[in-house]
Amino acid sequence: xxxxxxxxxxxxxxxxxxxxxxxxxxxxxxxxxxxxxxxxxxxxxxxxxxxxxxxxxxxxxxxxxxxxxxxxxxxxxxx
Length: 79
Description:
The protein is an alpha+beta fold. It has helices at residues 44-56, 63-78; strands spanning 11-14, 17-25, 28-34.
């Protein structure tokens, strides 16, 4: 794992994705992510919760299946 120190206003580039530290306050850090629309960006705990729910329903979901499922939910909300 690469660990970097950044100050508010500084960024890190991961390919064509920019991760910018927008604010640091106490033990909280606000992060902005600039990425092409085809990238799905979600909080890890949301992915874990959905994955747990799928597994609890005895479904054999792979991470690709999970991302497809969440993308469909996102498309439905846009309508």
